[in-house]
Amino acid sequence: ADPFITWIGHATLLIQVGGVNILTDPSFGFVFPCFMRHILPAVSREELPFIDLILCSHNHGDHANQLDYFSRFQPEVFSGAQTQAWLEGMGFQRIHENAWWQSTLVYKEGQEIKITAVPAQHGSQLGLFDANKMLWCGFVIEVGDKILYFAGDTALGVEMVDQEGIPHPLFEQIKAQFGTIDVAFLPIAPEGEPNVHIDHKEALLAFQALGAKEIVPIHWGAYRTGKEKIEEPIQLFMEEAERLGLQDQVRMLKVGESFICGMPLDTAMVSYSYS
């Protein structure tokens, strides 16, 4: 009954719970026009189990690369407001557009899953003339007694406005809304883009503000989107986590590793491989 979670790579996670398969921000290859993939996905899109739900945080290529491939299977897709036409253009029919803080209940295989779109400080863009026309977001997944937070892409957002129109730190708002989060999937790269991305240091600040039990660092290794080298973000992240005394709360996955949410950190993890 507890979520079984596999990091496919970058911001792509496979979350399996109660017979339901959830995929976040599917990206599996080259991102036009210039971002080569340096670490292959742990599981190819063809090797995945049947995907029931897709969570799409925004439309940037490194988060929605080859998203259209999955339309032939007609999963339910969760995304921000003003994205329906874009998703319908790829052939998706079962679409849930969500404003920030809007929740949707899904019932599958006798399992109730609550998915809430939450604020992020980032942006969206497909072409030259559609900047920020489609809403970006993160997602909170509530299933059984577990709460999972997938941030997508975001900056710290210290001046985000809450539901009452009052400015509060973004991650404190999420904590206030959901209480104790079991696992937070937070990006740790690129650095030097404080208006749109959290880096390795800011990810840990966000984690502390959330008060979550564990953090899984994502959004590193697959693509080089900033000045850092491929391996630098995770090295710097772990050094900072140790400096802050947070290393025991880090669930540091290699690409293709899995874990069961709620099990001890030292529990053996399963590694997937591709040929």
Descriptors for this entry?
275 residues; alpha/beta; eight-stranded mixed beta sheet; six-stranded mixed beta sheet; 5 helices; globular
Structural notes for this entry:
The protein contains five helices and 14 strands. The protein is α/β, with parallel strands linked by helices. Strand 2 and strand 3 (20-24) form a beta hairpin.
**Proportion of strand residues:** 25-35%
Number of strand segments: 14
Report the structural category.
Answer: alpha/beta
Q: Tell me about the biggest sheet?
A: 8 strands, mixed
Provide the gyration radius in Å. 17 Å
SSE succession: EEEEHEHEEEEEHEHEHEE
**Overall body shape:** globular
With helices defined by DSSP (H or I, 4 residues minimum), what is the helix count?
5
| Helix proportion | 10-25%
Unreliable stretches, pLDDT < 50, 5 or more residues?
A: none
Side-by-side strand order of the widest sheet: 6-5-4-3-2-1-13-14
The average pLDDT score comes to 92
Distance between the termini: 30 Å
